[in-house]
């Protein structure tokens, strides 16, 4: 609360003492302001905390993990600019399935292929606004990594765009992925994410689970 808003409610003498005592103190170093969503952050209309809360409730069940699990959390005040905005879309590699990706960093570890059990961190954005992320929370890496089996999206366990976007990455790598609507939330959309919306993913491949024998764990077919 501003000091000026308190002074009118005090007696003149008390207000004078308060103003002198305040001025005599060494001014504190101002703290940097936290990032917050502005009312005009979305071209579609005002964005509020309630907007993100309702979106998080729906994406908790549908979101990145279609069938639950993964430690995803909603970010209600993030308005960080998605890094792909600094990279020309012409620099992205386009796959036959419509996925576009750009490797910020190529990892030096094992390669994710169909059947690999992977752990990733991701940030999911629509029109530059974060609506889901695994990085929200405590811990050394910030948040709980999300785990899934590559190539398992047909079973409805993971968003197709994330599944296909991770395939081919190497452990330690970081990739920007542009996901077309048919590999994201499709014609129905989800909450405030409209039908036929293109979303963006910032994905970091943390690990590929190894078996006790030192080889990558694979899905048993059949």
Description:
This protein has 222 residues and is α+β, with helices and mostly antiparallel strands. The protein has a single domain (49-208), classed as Chitinase A, domain 3 (Roll), CATH 3.10.50. It has 4 helices and 7 strands, in the order H-H-H-E-E-E-E-E-H-E-E. It has helices at residues 3-6, 12-24, 49-59, 160-166; strands at residues 93-94, 100-105, 117-126, 129-133, 146-149, 174-179, 199-208. Strands 1, 2, 3, 4, 5, 6 and 7 form a 7-stranded antiparallel β-sheet that branches. Strand 1 (93-94) and strand 2 form a beta hairpin. Residues 1-27, 29-63, 65-84 and 212-222 have low confidence and may be disordered.
Structure keywords:
222 residues, Chitinase A, domain 3, seven-stranded antiparallel sheet, 7 strands, 19% strand, globular, PPIase_dom_sf, peptidyl-prolyl cis-trans isomerase activity, PPIase_FKBP_dom, FKBP18-like
